[in-house]
Write a sequence for this structure.
């Protein structure tokens, strides 16, 4: 408008005798041009120094902002890329085409927090003709469930059988799954620490009562959480975990032989003669701890299969 009126005015008034008025108009329009030029120049500088979030820069069409589904700035910020590379999804616990673990791997398990200290309701292993890929721990409605190790939330969703569930990939390479939650307290791609609350206990999904279904996996493969956690005493077996193909054989065949944890590698001579039952013990947990079987314990102690053990009861181990 301003420039247009300048040209128009120039034509119309260039021969006018009223030079004072003409000069005023000329200067007003000239000022207008200078201001427009400055505005244009500043816009160019701004464009150069502040790149558009959209690419390519030249696109003049307005685009909707990208959906903030992630706060991850680069794949390098995913945990444990030495094992998983850039593979990261928010939908599936395990993708069968992903590479499986090979050889022997030792993981550093420092900075641990027990997800829930509770009675074991169901062990890892075959159950009702299917594989139970975790361990079930009793809890109460909305009891806090804590993250086991530092890591990043990979999944936080409602699943048909897991119910409300959270999967965390940890910096140490393990993944943990917290299932049947009543509420979820974290978001996908959120960085969390050992001991952070991931949700509240419940019985969502395929669960008949309130409990936490806890899974521990390495590169997608589930194994018995007892390889990592001394469940009854709410602590780690060891600060290091060495896993190899035997750990997964335990999954495939449910071998009774204990795998390579510090407590489980005790040989027969280290096993005491007796064990006094503490809160949370089961014959199965005792058998695993001392490298024996439930059948053997029943036989040695002259117990029936339906026998219930009590706190303070002395169990013969050999
Ligand atoms: Zn379960």
């Amino acid at each position: 408008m301003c420039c247009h009126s300048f040209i128009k005015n120039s034509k119309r008034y260039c021969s006018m005798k009223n030079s004072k008025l003409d000069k005023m108009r000329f200067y007003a329009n000239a000022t207008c041009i200078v201001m427009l030029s400055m505005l244009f120049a500043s816009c160019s500088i701004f464009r150069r120094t502040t790149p558009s979030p959209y690419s390519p820069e030249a696109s003049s069409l307005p685009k909707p902002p990208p959906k903030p589904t992630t706060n991850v700035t680069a794949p390098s910020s995913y945990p444990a890329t030495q094992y998983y590379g850039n593979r990261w999804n928010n939908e599936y616990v395990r993708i069968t085409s992903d590479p499986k673990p090979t050889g022997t791997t030792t993981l550093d398990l420092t900075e641990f927090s027990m997800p829930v200290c509770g009675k074991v309701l169901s062990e890892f292993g075959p159950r009702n003709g299917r594989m139970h890929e975790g361990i079930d721990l009793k809890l109460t409605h909305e009891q806090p469930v804590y993250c086991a190790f530092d890591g990043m939330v990979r999944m936080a969703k409602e699943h048909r059988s897991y119910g409300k569930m959270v999967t965390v990939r940890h910096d140490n390479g393990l993944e943990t799954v917290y299932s049947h939650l009543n509420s979820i307290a974290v978001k996908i791609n959120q960085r969390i620490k050992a001991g952070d609350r991931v949700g509240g206990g419940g019985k969502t999904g395929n669960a008949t009562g309130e409990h936490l279904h806890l899974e521990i996996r390495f590169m997608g493969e589930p194994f018995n959480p007892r390889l990592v956690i001394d469940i009854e005493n709410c602590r780690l077996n060891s600060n290091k975990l060495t896993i190899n193909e035997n750990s997964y054989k335990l999954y495939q065949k449910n071998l009774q032989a204990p795998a390579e944890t510090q407590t489980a590698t005790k040989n027969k001579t280290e096993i005491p003669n007796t064990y006094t039952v503490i809160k949370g013990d089961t014959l199965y947990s005792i058998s695993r701890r001392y490298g024996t079987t439930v059948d053997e314990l029943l036989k040695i102690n002259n117990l029936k299969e339906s026998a219930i053990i009590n706190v303070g009861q002395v169990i013969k181990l050999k």
User: Anything to note?
Assistant: Helices lie at 2-13, 19-49, 81-84, 245-253, 283-289, 294-300. Residues 2-49 form one domain. The chain has three domains: 2-49, 107-237+245-252, 266-318. The longest helix spans residues 19-49.
